[in-house]
Amino acid sequence: MNARRKKRLALATALIGGVAAIASLLLYALNSNLNLFYTPTEIVHGKKDTGVKPEIGQRIRVGGMVTVGSLVRDPESLHVEFAVHDAAGGEVMVTYDDLLPDLFREGQGIVAQGVLIEGGKLEATEVLAKHDENYMPPEVAEAMGQTHEKLEYDSTQKTGY
Question: Coiled-coil ranges per the record?
Answer without folding.
Answer: none
